[in-house]
Amino acid sequence: MKKWAIIAFLVAAIGYQSCIEESPIAEQQLYLQRGDSIATATFDTLRKSLLQAMETKGMAGAVRFCNVQALPITSSLAEDGITIQRVAERFRNPANALDSRDSKQWQIFAQLKARGDSLSSVVQETETSFVFYKPIIMNPLCGNCHGNKAMGMQPEVLAVIDSLYPKDKALGFVKGDIRGLWKITFPKPFVD
Prior knowledge:
With 192 residues, the chain is an alpha+beta fold. The protein is 55% helix and 15% strand.
């Protein structure tokens, strides 16, 4: 009888240990899925709002709209202590500048892209949070405000950018460039 109790105890202990070892992977997967879902929903909301502004106010008006509304729209989709940001090395708004952790992740993505490797979302764990990063890749629509004159940017759009963002660094991108990163921070403990 004692032999079976010992065997049962060992099986339970091994099972418990394997759960502990698998937990970080499962936890990271949760944050990757949740982060991707939030980034997609936020991008869709921003894109729809921006397209509507482009239709009603033109490209220059869309830049003005983005200047006032992009950060509030992004923040409005955050819940449960989660923060949603778009950060970049070459930013338009100084509020979107990289911090030291962001900069390290940016360099990793840049190196992967330079080698021709695919870019996938990642999650980093800190003492107080889980931080999700996903590259924002330049596409043709973005070129209207983040391209350059040679790519057909309208002079009035450039004039509005110059007036609203005198220290703008977010021009000159081409299709496929890493334009920024989604950064979604989940506080610990976070329960979905």
